[in-house]
């Protein structure tokens, strides 16, 4: 699903102008696996449909497997698109009583004592293999395979409800994915100016933090009344430029 000849891959500071940001992008599993990756965006888990940035996705399909691992549950979803996709849930800690047969004494004829035990539980205990579900979550990749980290999982209770979701997916494709995303020069200049302002604010914040740390260190070293070495604001700003530039701020 490479970028077509007319599509321009815009800088990170333009992503908020995309019709796919920040929305749940309704895809089929096979389409998610076909999304592109581009250098410089891996750390933020951004993928691309043409030049549209994709980070949050939405799917509907059949649960064909559920596997539990240490601290997580994996739902395998089949939406009849020709590919399955794994949906990851981080299990949460939930204290529960657990019988301790060795806690009683020789003269104790009552029930065995209970001790607190922390269990890892799913937020969706009623979801089972064979259920049709709707899932919204963040997109990531593990060993070159796309995965979804679940944010919300809902049981689809009827065929009619499933058909309505298919229609929403088709509408999203027609109204968003199949239309080119093009920014004019005015929008690009405005986005660049906003990014520059954000970069300057971040640099100033870093300088203020450095000044506070320097002042604190000087007071601890020479006492409250000692004079501290003045901070060169210009040099600090110059030194921070490369780092924030690499972050794309």
Automatic annotation (TrEMBL):
<keyword id="KW-0158">Chromosome</keyword>
<protein>
    <recommendedName>
        <fullName>CST complex subunit Stn1 N-terminal domain-containing protein</fullName>
    </recommendedName>
</protein>
<feature type="compositionally biased region" description="Polar residues">
    <location>
        <begin position="217"/>
        <end position="231"/>
    </location>
</feature>
<feature type="compositionally biased region" description="Basic and acidic residues">
    <location>
        <begin position="190"/>
        <end position="201"/>
    </location>
</feature>
<dbReference type="InterPro" id="IPR012340">
    <property type="entry name" value="NA-bd_OB-fold"/>
</dbReference>
<feature type="domain" description="CST complex subunit Stn1 N-terminal">
    <location>
        <begin position="45"/>
        <end position="87"/>
    </location>
</feature>
<feature type="region of interest" description="Disordered">
    <location>
        <begin position="190"/>
        <end position="234"/>
    </location>
</feature>
<dbReference type="Pfam" id="PF10451">
    <property type="entry name" value="Stn1"/>
</dbReference>
<feature type="domain" description="CST complex subunit Stn1 N-terminal">
    <location>
        <begin position="129"/>
        <end position="202"/>
    </location>
</feature>
<dbReference type="GO" id="GO:0000781">
    <property type="term" value="C:chromosome, telomeric region"/>
</dbReference>
<dbReference type="InterPro" id="IPR018856">
    <property type="entry name" value="Stn1_N"/>
</dbReference>
<keyword id="KW-0779">Telomere</keyword>
């Amino acid at each position: 699903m490479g970028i077509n000849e007319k599509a321009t891959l815009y800088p990170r500071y333009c992503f908020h102008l995309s019709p796919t940001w920040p929305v749940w992008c309704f895809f089929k599993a096979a389409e998610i696996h076909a999304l592109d990756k581009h250098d410089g965006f891996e750390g933020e888990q951004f993928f691309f449909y043409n030049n549209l940035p994709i980070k949050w996705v939405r799917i509907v399909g059949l649960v064909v497997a559920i596997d539990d691992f240490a601290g997580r549950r994996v739902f395998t979803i089949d939406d009849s698109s020709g590919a399955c996709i794994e949906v990851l849930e981080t299990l949460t800690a939930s204290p529960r009583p657990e019988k301790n047969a060795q806690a009683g004494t020789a003269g104790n004829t009552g029930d065995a004592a209970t001790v607190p035990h922390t269990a890892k539980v799913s937020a969706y205990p009623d979801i089972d293999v064979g259920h049709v579900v709707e899932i919204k979550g963040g997109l990531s990749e593990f060993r070159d395979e796309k995965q979804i980290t679940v944010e919300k999982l809902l049981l689809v209770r009827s065929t009619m409800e499933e058909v309505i979701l298919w229609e929403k997916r088709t509408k999203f494709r027609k109204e968003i994915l199949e239309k080119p995303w093009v920014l004019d020069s005015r929008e690009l200049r405005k986005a660049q100016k906003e990014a520059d302002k954000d970069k300057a604010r971040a640099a100033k914040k870093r300088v203020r933090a450095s000044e506070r740390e320097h002042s604190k260190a000087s007071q601890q070293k020479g006492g409250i009344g000692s004079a501290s070495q003045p901070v060169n604001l210009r040099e600090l700003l110059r030194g921070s430029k490369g780092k924030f530039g690499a972050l794309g701020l």
